[in-house]
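Continuing the batch. This is chain 6 of the set; chains 1 through 5 are on the previous pages. Same settings as before, nothing changed between runs. Recording input and output for traceability.
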Amino acid sequence: MPNLARPTAVALALALALTGCGANVAPGEGKGVAARASDSHYPVTVENCGEKKTYQKAPQRVVTNDVGITEIMFALGLEDHMAGYVMPDDKGDLTAVPWKDAYRRTPWLSKERINKELVLDARADLVFAGWNYGFNEGEGFTPAALRRVGVDSYLLSESCRNGRGKARGVMAPLDALYTDLRNLGTVFDVEDRAEALIETFREQVAEAEAKALKGAARPRVFLYDSGQDKPFTSGGYAGPQDIITKAGGDHVMKDLKDSWATVGWETVVSRDPEVIVINDYGDTTAEQKKEFLLSYKPLANVSAVKHERFVVLDYVDLVESPRNPAAIASLAADLRALGS
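Output for chain 6:
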């Protein structure tokens, strides 16, 4: 997992802007917002990954899995509706992130994998996770398994399966973020807050796009997540698709009908990316990933490697999260600098 504090002026400024929008509530307002709301709001029904789900009241003990999912709740000011979150401990300095107070106030339930026992111990009434973001049939942790023990679930929209085996993705990545914000706004009766966030994000993205490289100046961009025998990368339905495209790049894996998947190095070589974005997380550092790419002989003639054009973004920038708009602005600036 990544270091959450990427020290760029653009990212910090945009993060502060969205924090002001997302946390625009009076002290003490977060707790019990939905519970105090008019009874006329409920029941409410939202569509989540193709399934209509009805809520008779706002969940009060949500358990989230992974950093992007957790920060979606924080951006909506819903930490007081959470029993806690699960994520590894390589999060960097959480006191420097926009939602530092929410992290401080919300229990960190585990630094290991989320599982049914943890959820039951937390007395959760809802788990907010996703396919390959916690939910996994191989480990027996699925929405169906939780339903059997009386716990509801909400799936991250980026992770919705699309009917092609276990491939994920049913909408554009930013649309997935906006869909989840809008759905959760309805479920927790904070619709105005959700719409304000979406409006702020759209403005941030539009501003970044206006400054982005255009036409023939747009470089071909490959997202390198991990893997040496074969690279793990992003397809047309993962966050980097919109992040790269709206930042002024041409995502070389845009035709991959999945969110995150493994491809062959020969595909990377044939598409000859001019810039490689490195996903910074895990036990292998971004510098180590860069060193591998520079030393791997089959990539020697790839433009990005030959000219050492690399950009590092944190994991939380690239998965569905409220940091995506800031990542677009940051990457747009990096691509302009590399192209100058």
